[in-house]
Structure formats: structure tokens, C-alpha cells
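Quick review question:
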């Protein structure tokens, strides 16, 4: 029976760790076909919006208040000029004030972070580190 409790503790730790990880849940509901021009911290290609959120939430990324994620490639008029942007593009933002409306067929989403301060970002990482240590401890108790 002792192994049963250890196994339950192990899976509980894994569940808690998955809930603590940076994810889209730390952001407002996405604004469809909205961009916030300028104030780009950096941009790159990612697998999905969760990966973009994780980049924004990293403690070493200063002042990231949200991001723009292009779910699919877009080609058309952007800011009064012809442009093409690849699917999976992620633009981290230091400010999200002035909006730009994309055409209805675009699949572009703006997410605003609820983890605005560096202190909140550090808390998330410390919580993840604590839960990781619990997972390692429970693993060694069960399998060690």
C-alpha cells in the first residue's frame, strides 16, 4: 500500500507541475485579427501560441506585456504596404496600446499577459522549480 501513496504523490506532482508551466492561461482571451504596431522586443517562429507565451514569460525577457501570434501565413496589406508573414510568427511586445485591424480572413491573435511584472515571472519559475524538486524526490522514493 505504501507504493500506492508514493505513486499518487508522484502523479500529483506531475499534474501540479503541468499546471504551473507558462502557458496561454496566463493571458487574456485572444483578440482576433488585431495587432499592436511597434514596441517589438523580438520576433521568431514558434510551434504554437503556447510556445510564444512561454517566450514572453521568460525572466530574462524584460517588459514583455503580451504577444502577437500568426496562426497561419498572411499575405496582404499591412500598415499601408504589401507584406507577407509566415505562419507561426511570434512578436513579443513591450507595449500594446494602438491597435491595427487586419482583414477578417487573417488568423492573427493578440494576447495580453497577466504576468506583467518580473516579480510575477520569477514566482512562476520558482514555483516550477519547487514542484520539479518534488517530482524528483517522489521519483527517488518510488523507484529508488
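Suggested answer, residue by residue:
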Amino acid at each position: 500500500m505504501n507504493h500506492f501513496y508514493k505513486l499518487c504523490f508522484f502523479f500529483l506532482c506531475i499534474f501540479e507541475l503541468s499546471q504551473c508551466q507558462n502557458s496561454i492561461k496566463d493571458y487574456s482571451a485572444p483578440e482576433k485579427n488585431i495587432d499592436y504596431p511597434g514596441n517589438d522586443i523580438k520576433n521568431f517562429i514558434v510551434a504554437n501560441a503556447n510556445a510564444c507565451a512561454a517566450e514572453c514569460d521568460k525572466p530574462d525577457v524584460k517588459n514583455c506585456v503580451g504577444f502577437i501570434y500568426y496562426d497561419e501565413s498572411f499575405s496582404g496589406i499591412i500598415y499601408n504596404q504589401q507584406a507577407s508573414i509566415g505562419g507561426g510568427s511570434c512578436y513579443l511586445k513591450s507595449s500594446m496600446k494602438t491597435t491595427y485591424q487586419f482583414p477578417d480572413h487573417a488568423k492573427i491573435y493578440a494576447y495580453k499577459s497577466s504576468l506583467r511584472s518580473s516579480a510575477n515571472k520569477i514566482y512562476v519559475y520558482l514555483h516550477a522549480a519547487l514542484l520539479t524538486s518534488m517530482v524528483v524526490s517522489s521519483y527517488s522514493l518510488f523507484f529508488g
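Why it works: The longest strand covers residues 40-45. Residues 2-143 form a domain with the Hepatocyte Growth Factor fold (CATH 3.50.4.10).
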